[in-house]
Amino acid sequence: MSAHAHPLDPLSAPEVERAWQIVRAEKAPGPRVRAIFVMLHEPAKKVVLAHRQSDAVERAAFVVLIDSAARRTYEAVVSLTQGRVLSWEHIPGAQPAIVLDEFVEVEAAVRADPRWQEAMRKRGVTDLTLAMIDSWSAGNFGFPQDEGRRLVRALTWVRRHAQDNGYARPVANLLTVVDLNEMAVIAVEDAGVIPLPPEDANYSAEVAGVRTGLKPVEIHQPEGPSFELSGHELSWQRWRMRIGFTPREGLVIHTVSYEDQGRSRPVLYRASVADMVVPYGDPRPTYFHRNAFDVGEYGIGTLANSLQNGCDCLGEIRYLDAVVNDGQGRAVTLANAICLHEEDVGILWKHVDWRLGTTEVRRSRRLVVSSISTVGNYEYGFYWYFYQDGAIQLEVKMTGVISNGAERPGVKPRWGELVAPGVYGPIHQHFFNARLDMMVDGLENSVYEVDTVADPPGPDNPHQNAFHTEATLLASETRAQRMIDPLAGRFWKIVNPSARNRLGEPVAYKLMPGENVRPFAGPQAAVTKRAAFMTRHLWVTRFDPRERYAAGEYPNQHPGGAGLPAYVQDDAPLENTDLVVWYTFGAHHVVRPEDWPVMPVTTIGFMLKPAGFFDRNPGLDVPRPMRHGECCAPGD
Ligand SMILES: [Cu+2]
Question: What's the whole-model pTM score?
Answer without folding.
Answer: 0.97
